[in-house]
Fold:
Amino acid sequence: MAPYASDDSTTAAEGREPGTRRRRAARYVVPVAVTGVAAATIGLVPALADAGDPDLPDITAQQLIEKIATSDVQRLSGTVKISTDLGLPDLGGLVDGMAGGLAGGMASGSPGQDDGGSAADPSARLTELVSGTHTLRVAADGPDRQKLSLLENAAEYSLIHDGEDVWGYDSASNEVYHATVPGSAGERTKERRQMPATPRELTEEALKAVDDTTSVTVDGTAQVAGRDAYKLLIKPRQEGSTIGAVSVAVDAKTGLPLKFTLTPAGGGAAVVDAGFTQVSFAKPPASTFDFTPPEGAKITEDGGTDRAPETGRKTEGDRAGERGGIEVIGEGWNTIAAFDTGGQGLPAATGGGGLGDLGDVGGFLGSFGDEVSGSFGSGTVFSTRLVNALVTEDGKVYAGTVTKEALVKAADARK
Structure:
């Protein structure tokens, strides 16, 4: 991402300080930046506290983003509540069965795993966060020690990173997953951040989308988990996005994002709402990151990311080559990903087709979509409260956080 740019405006507070002037917002690069994204226009309106909210010093959005970027919280522990509501239909056991089959297929490429995979594999377990409400306990002691525990009704799933070791433990099944992540501390930190789960990681992902198609302002102050915070408001300037706004509560002292809320353009409850309900910046006890597999536990060793694929098993590169790769259409918040499955759209009720041999599932899934047509032909749009996807009759797929009309327009233009 290119450095954020600001104009030469000063805040009202600066005008009240004769003979002095706060430095203008610096040009800098956010650590999670994506190369090539244009400079953003950042609002320079200082935060104004609402009634009952903490009265904090004035700050501009540019300065607040810089505060997030330079935040260096290495140690913390706390509880995070995350709620996700994509508006997906309740397909009951069908979804469970399909998810289990996919998880088993992914896991079968790993030495030491059976066809059913491991109940403690984080690649499957952390996907549970994409729906419903969950409570997480989190702890960190520098880049080499982190722990995340997903609390359930009568069980707990824990993911522990301690040096080069990563342990996953599912208490319900008494299964253990173990992997190693060799390399520098920075490389290991990058490796562990594959599934955003905390307000900080969600905020980093949101900031990647900030460019000149985005409005960024400071929207008052708040208290989160007993701490004073500024509220950063990120909104698309473009029409056609399903994203209404992203609100981030940023700890006034440390710059750590404490709460992340994404609301849809269509209104209603938040699609994602993740925030600390309790947080401490004291050093967690060393015992927090200790793990020894319980007696009798089934242990699955991951073979690592450098293992060779099984004979006859297609790699992601093979599949991408077959479907012609992913094409990016549009810019900013209206970006659409398009690719060709090389098939015939949704599978017929008898099975077959470009999306896999799903049998009667193909016709069943089609009933949840909206039929659309245009100069591209015809197809089906599957909608959630955030992400929409168009599957055309000739097997092309268009997906993004955009409206149904934007998908049809993109398909017509690409014909």
